[in-house]
């Protein structure tokens, strides 16, 4: 699977592009983190890849095929778990499989396997309202993974979590990515998170959002939380932070 | 103008203000540092800034978020019913009001029992309940799909909301003469009045509930491969159902009112008809008894729909 963005641009108000001239190729199995200050259009970028928003310029190509609408091969997870509150955890994970028309027995087996993967098998029958924020996000990720997406799109998935839970979820999502092998594109405003998770970090500029920097993360593939204190990690983090801060300042000065 | 960098620059280079904590009280470190120093530091500064007297420290602020104990709540609930009942009893027992105008609770009870024994009460009750059953069912069958469509599809909203919003303001009771001309004085005109009185409100309220389904939920559903019919049936409908039942509950009260109104005007059966008959013979005790029955039936409808909503909407609790 190769995801290509070609000259991608979006204007909600004519003459005021939110995103402009985004050219990007994501290699199969990659983990790309997109960072940028508020107003850089990073969520819009994800929405365009998901097919929920139509670009006003350029196009999104998945294996050479133009994306024209949403579909299960591009799974999406939002910041606040948009779970179906009346469905159990298992029922939530099963939603996409039902839409696919997968027979009951195979569906149940797949849901059970996914709940094992995200460590929530014991909560299969619980309603989302009873879960913690981190557990809800695990369900949302399992639900997106159920459809075997070629790309998993994460829109600030841990932005609403407390710091400790957030770190647990970072380790978790890295583990899932290594187990499942799907391509992940994650939008975040947390630079540390981006550098820790990504094999590649894209920094977006503001007004309009463009690719300001495309950095490869030269850190070991097996990362633990302790790596957040290594000199290589900190150097990269500082570099990205300075870029994002400069964009933020420039954006503030314009508004 | 670049306010932000400039401001931070200034902040970093300017002389540090004397720390309010360590400044005036350099003495005992072990003493109560924050308490008194904090008071003297904030008090005059605030007063100077607003031009008002400093806030009195002991002032008790009661937030408007207090709750009552379960016991108090139940006492007040009992009082809410028993209070007016006691007042009624006291007023009629005092002899200040002619019993022909205000019968005693005991007389009303007797009248109710007499009607129950003669069977009139049951046949009238059955007639009224039959009308609300049929009329409300029709109203729901029309308004829920209509409101759902309006709430889910912007074009349907644009097409229907102006006319439904307008019709809602026409009082259904004003249609009674027209309905009698069109449909006669039989069952049809009574059921039609009920439908007219309920259908527009319920449509708009259903549409509102449907519109409140979070956009994120609809977007996620699309990325999971669910098309519009599936999203409508498996996402929007279950999400909106508790709210739809809430709307039905509110409008069921109106429906029950319209049944009685329709029966007051032209009918040969029903609780409203029984009231007009009693009026002819100045049987106020019967009128009161029927009003009590009407109230109790209304309460039963309300409680039933509340229970249904609690059951359907367990997840939203």
Automatic annotation (TrEMBL), chain A:
Keywords: ATP-binding, Nucleotide-binding, Transport. CDD domains: ABC_NrtD_SsuB_transporters. GO terms for molecular function: ATP binding; ATP hydrolysis activity. It comes from the Bacteria. Residues 3-233 form the ABC transporter domain. InterPro entries: AAA+_ATPase, ABC_transporter-like_ATP-bd, ABC_transporter-like_CS, ABC_transporter_ATP-bind, P-loop_NTPase. Gene3D superfamilies: P-loop containing nucleotide triphosphate hydrolases. Pfam families: ABC_tran. SMART domains: AAA. This is ABC transporter ATP-binding protein. It comes from Sphaerisporangium album. The lineage of its organism: Bacteria, Bacillati, Actinomycetota, Actinomycetes, Streptosporangiales.
